[in-house]
Structures are given as C-alpha cells and as structure tokens.
Amino acid sequence: MLTPLLTLALLAAPGDKPAPATNATCPVLGGKVAEKSKTVAVRGREYRLCCAGCDTKLLKDPDKYLEKDGTPKNAKKK
Questions:
Q1: Contacts of 54 (CB under 8 A, 6+ apart)
Q2: In 3D, which of 44, 38, 75 has the Cα closest to residue 57?
Q3: Which pick of 16, 45, 62, 73 has the fewest CB atoms within 10 Å?
Q4: pLDDT, tens only, 34-77
Q5: What is the pLDDT of residue 75?
Q6: What is the pLDDT of residue 50?
Q7: Range of weakest confidence among 10-14, 27-31, 56-60, 64-68
Q8: Cα-based torsion angle of the residue sequence 73, 30, 60, 37 in order, rounded to the nearest 10 degrees
Q9: Taxonomically, which superkingdom (predicted)?
Q10: Cα 65 to Cα 73: distance, rounded to the nearest angstrom
Q11: Partners of 72 in the beta sheet?
C-alpha cells in the first residue's frame, strides 16, 4: 500500500514546478518559518513548515489549514 505522501507525489504531473513558498508562519501550527525551513507542495504551491509532522497534517487535510485561494487560514489579515 502506498503512503499518502507517495501517492500525492505520483499524482503530480512531471515537470510541473509549484509556486515558491511565501508564508512567514507555518500554516499548521503558526510557528515562525525561515527561508531554509522544510517545504511541502500542496495544490501547486509550496508552504514552509515550522517542524516535523506539519507536512503530514497539511497534506492530509489542506482544507483545514488553507483558504480556497491557498492563503493559510492563520495568516494575518491586512
């Protein structure tokens, strides 16, 4: 049985490069992220994460953490 992460990786079209991450906080836990933080691609866009485990949570249920336009739900509104 394939893991969910592997399944998602296989479904991505080869050669499609996701939009680079621009988030300043982790969409899952809200921790600060840096340019060198771990990233994960969801719906054609990369997101920086604060720690291990956030990648699985974000990939498992992106609607819980992301708005329909891809903005993290915990992003500060301007």
A1: 26, 27, 28, 29, 40
A2: 38
A3: 16
A4: 999 999 999 999 999 999 899 999 999 999 999 999 999 998 76
A5: 86
A6: 96
A7: 10-14
A8: 120
A9: Bacteria
A10: 5
A11: 66
Q: Are 73 and 66 in contact (CB under 8 A)?
A: yes
Instruction: Give the count of beta carbons closer than 10 Å to the beta carbon of residue 30.
Output: 14
Give me 22's structure tokens. Answer: 């621009």
Nearest to 22 by CA among 48, 59, 44, 49: 48
Report the alpha-carbon distance of residue 39 to residue 20 in Å, rounded: 9
Torsion angles phi and psi, residue 72, rounded to 5: -60, 135
Domain boundaries defined on the chain: 19-65
Provide the pLDDT for residue 9.
57
> Residue 76: what pLDDT?
75
- pTM reported for the whole predicted model: 0.76
